[in-house]
Amino acid sequence: MREAVIVEAVRTPIGKGKPNGALAGVHPVDLLAHTLTALLDRAGVPPADIDDVIGGCVDQVAEQALNTTRLAWLAAGLPESVPATTVDRQCGSSQQAVHFAAQGVLAGAYDLVVACGIESMSRVPMWSNVPPGADPYGTALAARYPDGLVPQGISAELIAAAWSLDRAAQDAFAATSHRRAAAARAAGHFADEIVPVPTGAGVVTDDESVRPATTPEVLATLRPAFTDPRYGERFPEIDWSVTAGNSSPVNDGAAALLIAEAATAARLGLRPLARLHTFAVTGSDPLLMLTGIIPATAKALRRAGLSLADIDLFEVNEAFASVVLAWLKDTGADPARVNVNGGAIALGHPLGASGARLMTTLVHTMRRTGARYALQTMCEAGGLANATILERVP
User: Fold this and answer.
1) Which of 57, 91, 116, 178 is catalytic?
2) Which end of the chain has fewer CB within 10 Å, C or N?
């Protein structure tokens, strides 16, 4: 029976997605190329042996157009004979890339495959792929949802209202994310996963969005970020509690994992970090949009024949504090096992790279702590979610 195992995983530091961000001066193709080179160098495998490269990217336009993954592979000077493709499942794009890669291994289509992700939100801002005046929805979708869908910030507000999550709870969660990320960085827990990135201004080695001094009291001074009278009238239950401080920031970054068939890994002398145990994807209400992680978690556990108590570590993407808090309420998971190194609120959320970034952090944390099972889940625009269960290989 074939098994898919992760044998190496790396990521760049995560830069602030601003003109003066640490990685803003690096073209996304070059940033991903640097990451791919580092991955293969660490693994020590001949690049020509890679069967495919599957990358995630959300805004596939401008400097992220024309199959960014293939361009990055070529930019790295790697063999032209190796194919590559770029997929979009919104924020879960590179987690989906991992799923496709592992599924290809299990099906016998691949023996060695790279799954990766890239997003430079400094250089290709959100919604760059929807030009002014363009309608991405069409008439049939508008007819199905005549009141209209809403931006993610409004979905986060609706989740906060539906799960009775007040501002204080969201700010406390966000402060914990920064505290855990700062502690993990100080302890050197990211050292094995981060690939330093040289830029014209020097070498970037650390995640740029972590704020060690952040407290709930500091976060309480921020104004709500998504107030809009139109939505306030439509949804009177909204209390306007979602701020820039309890939401993920805008970021730049890349991550990559090498996935192998277990027998191939053994033949090449590659040490598996974890086995890709179970995959699940779900659709959910596109209005609330970000709640799919709840059924995705249940589906993955059911397929794996595991319970929540069997999972030692969780990575739940912190798009907004309200999303993770709602998941915690519904699942009853132990908060002490969730995002133990901090999450996207502190570390950052470079859209197409985030799924691979979370999994990179997760497999290294499993190896460091001896955790047997871990579960990662990502909420995604349009009412989608991925969930992945990993098992550490002794």
Assistant:
1) 91
2) N
- Cβ 35 vs Cβ 56: under 8 Å: no
d(CA 76, CA 105): 24
Q: Which long-range contacts (CB under 8 A, 24 or more apart) does 336-339 make?
A: 337/311, 337/312, 337/313, 338/314, 339/177, 339/180, 339/314, 339/315
Q: How far is CA 111 from CA 5, 30, 247, 375, in A?
A: 10, 26, 39, 24
Distance CA 82, CA 44 (A): 17
Q: For 164, left (φ over 0), alpha (ψ -120 to 50), or beta?
A: left
* DSSP conformational letter for 270: P
Instruction: Give tens-digit pLDDT for 307-350.
Output: 999 999 999 999 999 999 999 999 999 999 999 999 999 999 99
Q: Please, are residues 117 and 353 in contact by the beta-carbon 8 Å criterion?
A: yes
DSSP 34: H
- How does pLDDT run across 167-177, given as a tens digit for each residue? 999 999 999 99
Provide the residue type at 259 as one letter. I
User: Active site includes 116?
Assistant: no
Task: From the candidates 116, 178, 364, 379, give the one annotated as an active-site residue.
Answer: 379
Do residues 79 and 51 make contact, with C-beta atoms less than 8 angstroms apart? no
Token match 């063999």: residue? Answer: 79
Contact 105, 265 (CB under 8 A): no
Is 57 known to be catalytic?
A: no
**How far apart are the C-alpha atoms of 154 and 109, rounded to whole Å?**
42
- pTM for the full predicted model: 0.97
